[in-house]
Records
---
Amino acid sequence: MAARVYLNAAPLDELVARAGLTHREFAQACGITPVTLSRARNGRPLRASTLRALALGLSRLKPLKGLPDDLVTATPPSDGSRKRNVT
């Protein structure tokens, strides 16, 4: 089983805001849909293709100092932002 990777939305939101973009514009720059970005921001595990697209989108932003070390994590969000189905 492949390891799961999650997006830490707070640092991404800060980067997108500092670049002067909306989430929709950032998703377009990444080549993903706004729905895919929203799902990632809300705690869904990232697919490898989505992670690559986010990295590409971030590389297209204006040069930004201080990229966060915690943009992605192996731990799902614990703030209750993601609803989980229990089966």
---
Amino acid sequence: MENQFVLIEKEKIEKILDLVKKISSDISLKREITDLKLLDSEQAADTLGVSESTLKNLRRDGRIDYVQQGTIIRFTLDHIKDYIEANTKKAFSKKGGMYDRI
């Protein structure tokens, strides 16, 4: 069997590579969206250990991010994690009459 080579113009190869990159990017984006779990208000409130009305107040006051789909409100685990991190206070210990960060 003989080796067969096909000559392709440089411009065509570049177009093919651009298409492959775009498809790869689209696949990555779809995978990220698929992995993104949306929680309803009840689930998000349960996760935070607060009532749904408290969660609504946090959302209204701009203290927690959310996703709105028409009239439906959803939260991601990242929204909840960001809220927890933003509201975490560092502990202090008392040493020799002074309070120091642990």
---
Amino acid sequence: MSISDYLGIDLEYIVWGLAGSVVVLLFILFINFCMIAKLKKKYKKFMGDTDAKSLEEKIVERLEQLDDLVDADGYIFKPSTPIDISNVDEYIQ
């Protein structure tokens, strides 16, 4: 009695299936390594010669610029009283 008698399929098909799975997984592994290398390049370019304090300053500066833009934008609607949904047509421009 051999293993193929117990399984009902030839052992050669199982080996070929496992080999194909290994090839597919190696291909996926290669793609992941390429993506990680690309992300590392972007990260190094982003970090450059900066430290945590200068990054924090950049973030705070950008948030202040964003606040200035929001304050300067005349299209932002800030009602002084709650909007009554039955009169919503009055608030649509």
